[in-house]
Structure formats: C-alpha cells, structure tokens
Design a protein that fits this description.
It is a single chain. This protein has 183 residues and is mainly alpha-helical. The protein contains six helices and no strands. The protein has helices spanning 3-14, 24-55, 62-85, 92-95, 100-135, 152-173. It is elongated, with a radius of gyration of 22 Å. The chain starts with a helix and ends in a 10-residue tail after the last helix. Residues 7-20 have low confidence and may be disordered. Residues 41-173 form the Tripartite ATP-independent periplasmic transporters DctQ component domain.
Length: 183
C-alpha cells in the first residue's frame, strides 16, 4: 500500500460504524411489509366507506381488522424501522448543552436502558403471544382471530433489543462515540 492508501485505510479503521446502519436488505424487509400493510389498510377502509355510502352495508369486521391487525403491524414495524434509521424523536434541549464526556455516558446508559426495557417487553410479549395462541384469541366478541399478530410484539421488541445492544457495543468499542458526528 502507498502512504495515502495506508492513511485512508487507517482512517476507515478508526471511524466507528454508524449505529443506525443495517444492511439495505434488512431495512427493506422491515419497511416494505409496513408499507404494504398501510396500503391494504387504506384500501380496506376506503372500500368500507364506499360500500357503506353506496349500499348502506359495511364490510364485515372492518373495525376489528383495522384495530387488531393493521394498526399493530404498522406501529410495531414502524417503531423498529424508525430506530434503524435513527429517526426517533429526540429531546435535545439538555443533551445539546452537555459536555462530550457527559453525552457519551448518557448515550451508553440510554442504549443499555433501552436494551433492558425492550428485552423485558420481548420476553413478556412472547409469553403472552404463546398464551394467546393456546387460547385462540379473537377480537372481543367477534370471530376475527388476532393471536398471530401478537407475535409481532416479541419479534419487534427483540429486534429493538438486538439493535440497542449492537449500538451499545459499537459505542463502547469507539470509546463512547456511536459515529463520527459525535465528536
């Protein structure tokens, strides 16, 4: 390697990975289903409204399907997709006034707290999802089966746990920085 190549290679080695980066395929695996579900929900609700306007009759179980299938899928998958992109709401009023060292401590503590809380939600959600499957959970008094969608809770919170732990590990390896912008 020439001297400039060695410097560039050394800079790449020093630069920590972006904590919000996942393989593009993994991102699409999250966002495409959420977009499809959103389009299906809008189509379903519009079809229901048009049918009700034209005939006075609604599509059966539209409210239950929207409430117990579409919305949880959109919210939970969107939650993980937003974290993957680094687009969660940030309250930076105090954070921006902290020293770099304090920010690093807060970042590490936050990553750890998020991992623990999301891991707990995933664990509890998995137990509930299995229970819901065993009892064949339906949407209240309707016949709409909803237990399968409850498995999204442990899946999405499990992904958030892995994501937070990965971010934590990257941050610790980088001396508390998650990416080059932290400097």
């Amino acid at each position: 390697m020439t001297a400039p190549d060695q410097r560039e290679h050394a800079e790449e080695q020093e630069r920590p990975a972006d904590p919000h980066h996942m393989a593009p395929l993994a991102g699409r695996l999250l966002e495409i289903p959420a977009a499809v579900v959103l389009v299906l929900m809008v189509g379903h609700v519009v079809a229901n409204a048009l049918l009700r306007w034209a005939t006075g009759q609604s599509l059966p179980e539209t409210l239950e399907i929207t409430t117990y299938w579409y919305l949880p899928a959109i919210v939970l998958v969107g939650f993980v997709a937003a974290a993957r992109r680094g687009e969660h709401v940030a309250a930076s009023l105090l954070y921006d006034r902290m020293t770099t060292a304090t920010r690093r401590i807060v970042d590490v503590a936050t990553d750890l707290l998020v991992a623990v809380v999301c891991g707990a939600f995933a664990w509890y959600g998995a137990q509930e999802a299995w229970h819901n499957m065993e009892i064949g959970l339906t949407a209240g008094a309707s016949v709409v089966v909803i237990w399968p969608v409850t498995f999204l809770v442990p899946l999405c919170f499990g992904l958030m746990t892995v994501f937070s732990l990965t971010t934590l590990i990257r941050r610790l390896r980088a001396g508390g920085r998650a990416n080059a912008e932290d400097e």
